[in-house]
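Researcher: Please predict.
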Amino acid sequence: MVHTYEEAVEWIHNRLQFGIKPGLERMQWMLARLENPERRIKCIHIAGTNGKGSTVTYIRSILQKADYTIGTFTSPYIESFNERISINSIPISDEEIIQLVSVVKPITEELDETDLGAATEFEVITVMALYYFGKMNAVDLVLFEAGLGGRLDSTNVIHPVLTIITTIGFDHMRILGETLGEIAGEKAGIIKSGVPLVTGVKQFEALQVIKEQAERKRAKVYELDRDFSVEDIKSVKTGESFSFQCPFGVYKNLSISMKGVHQVQNASVAVMAVKYLQTYLSFLIEEQHIRSGLQEAFWLGRFEQVAENPSIIIDGAHNPEGIDSLVQTIRAHYSTSRITIIFSALSDKPIEIMVGKLEEIASKMIFTTFDFPRAVSAKMLSTYGQLENKEVFEDWKEGIVETIDNLGENETLIITGSLYFISEVRKFILSEKK
């Protein structure tokens, strides 16, 4: 038994030792022992290389404006572990974490003794979320973000009313495949028989794989730039504006506060999903719910300005596609600023490509590291840098403080890389401001 929140979270994190083990057998075994709580949940399943968290946020925000109670399951966390399981953006309580671990821990330890092997951390957390929404706290709709891939991801035991695939890119290639087609095949594994799919995927190779899987499953596809589209995209001081159209409605001059053209794509996928809910599942959603929900949607650690004078922005751009979006956003919104970048990354990423893209816009690069099993040393990271104006800090806190002290006028500091790194940075900067 666990008696405190700290004991509960420590037990969960100790499951990290069992690594990443794709497959659904352990999930199905545990859920059967818990009387299959996943079957009692109305949900949307969201997979994709990038944009999952933002798309979840837009959908949640719109539906909240329409007075629905919305559960979310997301990863990783930025401020606290509890936020991975939330209702209306409010993380579940410490007491509920204790209660969930008290239920799931005995089942997990039984599983450890079977031929199926030990459950991973992500599997345990997924079971906790399914039990929470299925047995402890029913909501109108749950938005489930897939972890790694889709086909063999722990979340793929759910039975959604709608599936979403946001984007396809080169990430986790050692597990998901070497080509866009192979990666798309894994993501497309979330498509269920007869359950419609909304997708923002644009690459022909990836899209063909997804559409072929949807056809086999007799799942209707709503495809960006074919079944729904955006136009009149403008980067403005407060974010982005655009117009949206689909078979179920047209909305002119929508606004989002999350910056970047990629966020327009995420928002459009969210609006298409919401229009599906409204049209076919009788969700009562008005135009104003969509407008205000989009405008007020906010996702921690995604091009988030955490300080002014000097301007400091954090962004969890943890793969090449994320870096591309970051670079594009900086060019659109900070074209007149000198850019200093602090970067840290994990060893399973294509670091040389990511650093090269960042150096296209940086006047100075600062390489650092943080306390995480797969984090690359600052010295090793710096070997990928070609910019003459670069520095190395093995102590990331020291690097941030010294960099901020030396920022000049009209200079913007961008801190980016691993989301685990960004989580630590955000806490540090906000505590220093206080």
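Model: DSSP finds 15 helices and 17 strands in the chain.
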